[in-house]
Amino acid sequence: MQTIEIEQEIRTFLIDSFLFGKSDELTDTTPLFGNVIDSTGVLQLVVHLQDRFAITVEDDEVNTANLGSVKDAVAFVERKLNR
Fold it and tell me: Which of 12, 39, 49, 65 is the most buried (most CB within 10 A)?
């Protein structure tokens, strides 16, 4: 899967699930925690990533370094897929 496909999938999920279709509110570097998603939203994002990309997200991987923005989440998924 290519980077652009991963990005589009994550971006679409976030826009549809949390931003009510308002794509202009989500850039590659918009902080997700507290701005786009809350603690329940983090869980929803993790479940979505696991289901959509067939990866396992460990508890210690749920942090802002890995899921802090769309850019971070894309890089995280790419790392998981390339293992």
Answer: 49
Domain ranges in the chain are 3-81
Residue 33's DSSP bridge partners are 37
Residues 6+ apart with CB under 8 A from 46: 57, 62, 67
Two structure tokens written together for 17: 């699930």
pTM: 0.94
pLDDT tens, 22-77?
A: 999 899 999 999 999 999 999 999 999 999 999 999 999 999 999 999 999 999 99
Query: What separation, in Å, do the N-terminal and C-terminal C-alpha atoms of the chain show?
Result: 13
CB 10 within 8 A of CB 78: no
Instruction: Tell me the torsion sign for CA atoms 39, 68, 33, 52.
Output: negative
